[in-house]
Design goal:
This protein has about 160 residues and is α+β, with helices and mostly antiparallel strands. The protein contains three helices and seven strands; from the N terminus they run βααββββββα. The protein has helices at about 15-25, 30-35, 110-155, and strands at about 5-15, 35-45, 45-50, 60-70, 75-80, 80-95, 95-105. A hairpin with a 4-residue loop joins strand 4 and strand 5. It is globular and about 45 Å long. The N and C termini lie far apart (about 40 Å).
Length: about 160
């Protein structure tokens, strides 16, 4: 059984579109600022394996393939426990950048089956995951590139 999900959200951050792009396309550093991303392994220049865990007691195992890393749209194809696309439309606005997030995915297997009864809980779990992304992104962008260099030295 498969379940289809579409998620959309809009955020504003106090950073340039270029700073947002640089943060979003640097998958290997996600665990430093996005608490729900527990591990990332590079599979090549455009591909990475990502393990995510939000509030519910399961870890999603995903493979991301970069479709575009150029502004104004950052996009990846997702396979693994989810299959579909994730896009950020990045637009300058007064005082920073607006991000329009869109995710369209299908879930198969046991999680897809669970969706028939647990859809509201799974959507709530996704919301918590994306709040972690938004809040972590804002904090990382506030810290700026100097903080990333310091983190690199201490790793």
């Amino acid at each position: 059984m498969k379940a289809h999900y579409t998620f959309r959200d809009t955020w504003s951050v106090a950073a340039t579109p270029e700073a947002v792009r640089d943060l979003v396309v640097d998958l290997e550093r996600y665990p430093r600022w996005w608490p729900q991303v527990v591990a990332v392994a590079s599979l090549g220049p455009d591909d990475a394996r990502v393990l995510c865990r939000s509030v519910l007691p399961y870890t999603l195992d995903l493979v991301l393939h970069a479709v575009t890393r150029e502004l104004p749209v950052l996009a990846v194809e997702v396979t693994g426990d989810l299959a579909g696309t994730v896009r950020f439309r990045v637009t300058p606005e007064d005082g920073g950048t607006r991000l329009d997030f869109e995710q369209e995915v299908e879930i198969a297997g046991l999680l897809g089956l669970a969706s028939s009864v647990a859809r509201p809980v799974l959507a709530w779990n996704h919301d918590r995951m994306m709040r972690g992304c938004r809040d972590g992104m804002r904090a990382a962008l506030e810290a700026g590139p100097a903080q990333s260099s310091t983190d690199d030295m201490s790793a």
